[in-house]
Design a protein that fits this description.
Blueprint: H1 26-37, E1 62-68, E2 80-91, E3 96-104, E4 111-112, E5 115-121, E6 137-144, E7 147-148, E8 150-153, E9 158-164, E10 172-180, E11 183-192, E12 206-210
Antiparallel strand pairs: 1-2, 2-3, 3-4, 3-7, 5-6, 8-9, 9-10, 10-11, 11-12
Amino acid sequence: MKTILLAALVSTLPALAAAAERPAGLAAAEALARAALGPECTMNDMAEVPMAGPDDDGFGHFFHRFTYRAARQSADEPEIEAELYQLFCVAGAYNVRHAFVLKTSDEEGLRLLAFARPELDYAYADEEMTTLKAPPGVKGFGAALQLVNSRFDERTLTVTSVGAWRGLGDAWDSGTWTFRDGGFVLTRFEVDPTYDGSPADGARGHVVYDAAE
């Protein structure tokens, strides 16, 4: 698993190399996210959030364009054009959160996306929470309107997220969502809930959901 954890964030945003041009629909996407998420998406109270380039970390907004064919379409219909706004919502001590807003050529308006997430079931074997009684399981599913330390891969049309549960990064979770027929579907989720000081390299992670299985 390729893990990207932010060890620390400075209080001011750094200069973003090769910042992208601000897309025409950005203001509407920001307004939707702010209205829906309220204090959970303050955008760090910035008057204007900078655009980030493809190689930048999570500071700032990202904008992605791609096309796809919906299951309902016939072979002679043109592909649907999609605009994906990955909107910076808030930066904490070691995590950055983004919301995702989608605009497609076959729909009016914008959609704030929700990402399925498993509700985890586990118990610790010690008071220090360094070991588990048994491997973690899934007791249900919920949905998240923001993802932590997320990336979008335009080649595979997948979003990945890696969340550090504390600054050391020894406890974490990681998800992968794949774009299918107009939305993102959870395809893999992995977690290490132990605060044992081990490096966050995925070696100790437990895969609790894998669509390939």
